Amino acid sequence: MGALFTKRNITIALIIAVFGIGVLAFINLNKKAPAPPPVVPVETTSKPQLTTIGKSVEGRNIEAYTYGEGENYLLFVGGIHGGYEWNSVLLAYKFMDYLEANPDVIPKNLKITIIPSANPDGIYRVTGKDGRFAMSNVSTSQPVLEAGRFNKNKVDLNRNFACKWQPKSTWRNEIVSAGTKAFSEPEAAAIRDLVLKQKPVGAVFWHSQANAVYTSECETGVLPTTLKMVNIYAGASGYQEVKSFNAYEITGDAEGWLASINVPTITVELKTHETIEWEKNLAGTKALLSYFGQEIKK
């Protein structure tokens, strides 16, 4: 009798267990699966590597921003003529914003280095601000603008480089100081040191206001790649292509010095001192990126 009772209890227990499992399975099958978490789009950005490459005469930082992961450098420089060409600084910062938001535009084999303000003392003299500044802060007084062209030592920095350097040079119809020797000014020396370190495959200097793209040369003529760069940038942007600057004699210019050490370099002159002509210059810079992205692979 005891054995029978035990077997019956076991049987009942098994039936209850099986029934319970079935009920739980039924509940789980009819239970709604939890909703997946919402997909949040991630904005792709590329933060640059910031390097202080030198100090101005008044002690302001001269900064270089580098984007990309390639082995070859392409250099862009704004503001070497300070507040006189303040819009070239704005253009450089605008290009930096574009690269941060569109990192894929940089070819895999390139790094892009930008010196947005090569003469920060000259910028401050006109705008009263350091770094990024608003257009409303810029004085339109021509004497103030022209004073902002030079550094604190009253040297035209684009006459202080080692390409046919002389202590005095010209700007339009004026005689300007080119320093006590080539690279006597810390701003010019900072650009020199960066160029010698990076050995860029090409360089672009933004200026204003001639509405054209110019080649560079020193004493051995225009480099073939420089001619190609001028053609590409002018063709894409719509600026006039000028193969030789002959309005007046220039000595000690930065672009000429780069040419003398075999770095193809062009000068892009904006149309006015007020606008950055963004769409035109974006087209020109993107065309150059595409060219160097393909040319270096050959």
So, CATH architecture? 3-Layer(aba) Sandwich
Order of helices and strands: HEEEHEHHEEHEEHEHEH
What overall geometry do the principal axes of the alpha carbons give? globular
Number of helices: 8
Number of domains: 1
Description:
The protein is built from 8 helices and 10 strands. The protein is of the alpha/beta class and 298 residues long. It has one domain: 3-Layer(aba) Sandwich (Aminopeptidase), CATH 3.40.630. The strands form 2 sheets. Strands 1-2-4-3-7-10-8-9 form an 8-stranded mixed β-sheet, with helices on both faces. Strands 5-6 form a two-stranded antiparallel sheet. Strand 5 (168-171) and strand 6 form a beta hairpin. Helix 6 (224-237) packs antiparallel against helix 8.
Summarize it.
The protein is of the alpha/beta class and 298 residues long.
Task: Output the keywords.
8-stranded mixed beta sheet; 37% helix; alpha/beta; 298 residues; 18% strand; globular; disordered N terminus; two-stranded antiparallel ribbon; single chain; Aminopeptidase
